[in-house]
Structure prediction request, 405 residues.
Amino acid sequence: MTDLSHLRADFPILHQQVNGEPLVYFDNAATSQKPRQVIASLTRYYEQDNANVHRGLHELSNRATDAFEAARKKVARFIGAASADEIIFTRGTTEGINLVAQVWAAQFLKAGDVILLTGMEHHSNLVPWQLAARRSGAVLRHIPVLDDGTLDLTAIDTLLNGQVKLMACVHVSNSLGTINPVRELCAKARALGVTTLIDGAQAVGHLPVNVLDIGCDFYAFSGHKMCAPTGIGALYGRAEMLATMQPWHGGGEMIESVTLETSTYKAAPQRFEAGTPDIAGVIGLGAAVDYLESIGIETILRHGAELTAYAMQRLAALPGIRILGPLGDRASLAAFALACAHPHDLVEFANTHGLALRGGHHCTQPLMKRFKVPGTSRASFYFYNTAAEVDRMMDILHRAVIFFS
Ligand code: 7TS
Prediction:
């Protein structure tokens, strides 16, 4: 198995005891831990360069602006965007999707149009479209999920028709681990002139993402799931799409000129970035990209696949377990239900042994309903996790089965 355990030295937080036992952090799908390199980039910024961006002509402001815009270029390159102008900094995936569901939807959605989603979306790729549908009179449709946790693509040719105005789909499911065929879906959508948005929250930093190759119009992701600070993320928007869109928030930085009555606006990305941004967060996101690239995204992908396959194989032997999601090709997480324990009880038991799992509906309530479970327990991995930690999880889960049976 690919061994990246030397990287654990970069993560101060991993080296602690929780409830008297060494911490095993398997809640990476909720948020990843941060390496020293990213933490240091924040400290360095605040200690040496802190100033507002794009505003001053003084040295610190120039330095902050250079670092801020350099991060935009890094992010663009990291996800294969054609230009840094296609990267809008947001607070995260949720905000990116809401931007599109408000600005794009207000201009282009009308009554009777169809918004095509899937049955495995996170609430942040469901609720904004429900709101948009309510405002516009558009109708929601969903690509069904099969028992094996993949999308039912036999339904796609009927569902993806001329009435669909926008298709929004999760790249990697946070509750099943499914990696969706977003390239194929976007190709079909594009052929019909359907606008596409991909929720990349669980994909960026975990597998190679190239928005040009995927062929989507929008791609939203969060920095905090890929070693960057919380509160920062990005929305990729294809240049032609952004050029047609009205501003979102109004305020400083997004304008060309202002009179008391009216204003003219800058082009993207500034048009969509009103007010003082999270400058440190952006710089931290750039540092996270540097860090991940120094490991290599292919290496991260391979490690995740191997560790997950090992965990899946060991979990399958647990009495009374039901594992959700595809058995084969999947992202680095395993979600399961145990016959003997409610997920919340199991996660609390795990916590008493220093093991951080997540239990509940994972913000995918319709999907839980689809699989007829109140929730699941989820172990989600990142490159600093090890097979030895999976072994510790299994020891704890075996003890849990005895405890709850
Ligand atoms: N989309 C997916 C697929 C996600 O997994 C999440 C967060 C989001 C969107 C929202 O991201 P945010 O950064 O804007 O909050 N998922 C999870 C999770 O699985 N456990 O906690 C948060």
